[in-house]
Amino acid sequence: xxxxxxxxxxxxxxxxxxxxxxxxxxxxxxxxxxxxxxxxxxxxxxxxxxxxxxxxxxxxxxxxxxxxxxxxxxxxxxxxxxxxxxxxxxxxxxxxxxxxxxxxxxxxxxxxxxxxxxxxxxxxxxxxxxxxxxxxxxxxxxxxxxxxxxxxxxxxxxxxxxxxxxxxxxxxxxxxxxxxxxxxxxxxxxxxxxxxxxxxxxxxxxxxxxxxxxxxxxxxxxxxxxxxxxxxxxxxxxxxxxxxxxxxxxxxxxxxxxxxxxxxxxxxxxxxxxxxxxxxxxxxxxxxxxxxxxxxxxxxxxxxxxxxxxxxxxxxxxxxxxxxxxxxxxxxxxxxxxxxxxxxxxxxxxxxxxxxxxxxxxxxxxxxxxxxxxxxxxxxxxxxxxxxxxxxxxxxxxxxx
Length: 401
Fold this sequence. Notes:
This protein folds into two domains: 2-195 and 386-399, Glycogen Phosphorylase B (Rossmann fold, 3-Layer(aba) Sandwich); 206-324 and 372-383, Rossmann fold (3-Layer(aba) Sandwich), CATH 3.40.50.2000. 40% of the residues lie in helices and 14% in strands. The chain contains 15 helices and 14 strands. It has helices spanning 11-14, 18-26, 37-45, 59-65, 73-77, 89-109, 122-130, 145-155, 157-162, 223-241, 258-261, 292-301, 312-319, 359-383, 388-399, and strands at residues 2-6, 30-35, 49-52, 113-117, 134-137, 173-176, 191-192, 215-220, 247-252, 268-271, 285-288, 304-307, 332-333, 339-340. The protein is globular, with a radius of gyration of 23 Å. Mean pLDDT is 85; it is low at 312-357.
């Protein structure tokens, strides 16, 4: 079976598909990653063959050119709507640009199946024209794909009709690495495939084994955030971390930003790019920017995960481990905002003294225990999902291989 993989020109959009690509190769199938030069390096580093199509996209340069000095993206556009997503006409325009190139290559290479990440839509058209199945691969928690598909269907309708289609086809299958406990309500269920963390390769540094504090926290905003005026924010976080007694703080960042981040407090270690898989299991907490890969990796390894102004795709995965729902029978306020008592009590009981000796530590202990249970359950649920190798027979059946 020949599989043509497509991705938007961001390596972080491409990497969630890599474990499935490895599983396909291990089963003896041919895989080629077709796309712009921006993702070629990541594909080669993962051991995959490529076909370079189109010009470099240089997404961070495009976005930086539209930002006022010192203003970050989230400051300019506001907090994303993680519950409903947002239409994305940009990706329809991008698909139109690459569609002729993808079609030309696909007609020559003759794939049996096209596998695309969730925000890549040219693959659906190519597959429809060639009469082969198209499969979408979510990054993880997905508030974006359905709204983006609807917008791209409108944007690409004309070109689809000219190519003999009735409109933008739906995918034959959606691979979903997010377990139901993480996925947003209302998202169409996909075929489950275990999330296998991959954040690049590298050497495990000595500091991973040289813990210097009672607790270890990783603070990582991602190089894309830093490139888009995010250095002052990370520098502020580093300075604030200096006040955390007994806490060792690890800050991965590209070497080119180290000088701008300035001298670090004694308990903060600024390091070069390091695969999360090398040290997330040594962390008690992770503070990140809400990228899907960061959030899903943290959920898979189990440290408490905090998000700063989350990117839409990672927000729900990140917020889960640190927010514990109070069981309905415990009282509080209901969905209508009215205060509820415990079952069988028509009136509130005596007012409790929440400042009584010992009550604060007990309540905090219970909160931490509930949080830890939530994290452990999520980690075990993710680990129990079928691995990428189990998805290969499903893809083979779709392609008639």
